[in-house]
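Late entry, evening session. Most of the bench is empty. Finally got around to the prediction I had been postponing all week. Sequence below, unchanged from the version circulated by S.P.
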Amino acid sequence: MVFPKLVTANPSAGNTPATSWKQAMGPTTEPITPSESKVLEQLLLGSSNKTIAAALLLSRRTVESHMANLLAKTGCQSRTQLLLWALARR
């Protein structure tokens, strides 16, 4: 088993610590699930996690999990970057 190399914090070198082992590995080849797609569509509408949860009849924690999975699968580091990623693929 190969473990990802976690970057140690060294801001002068442009390195920041990896926020999770999933993000440290970069984008995956796992497909986005239908549920994650629905959450992504709501994100494109500018919805918050709370609003997405209400619209899709999910718990806020479930929406947070879908967001975390989307970030890991796409290699994005933030909701904004994920939004731009999704817009580029429309």
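Two things to note before I forget:
The CA atoms of residues 42 and 51 lie 9 Å apart.
Residues 27-88 form a domain with the Arc Repressor Mutant, subunit A fold (CATH 1.10.10.10).
Will write this up properly tomorrow.
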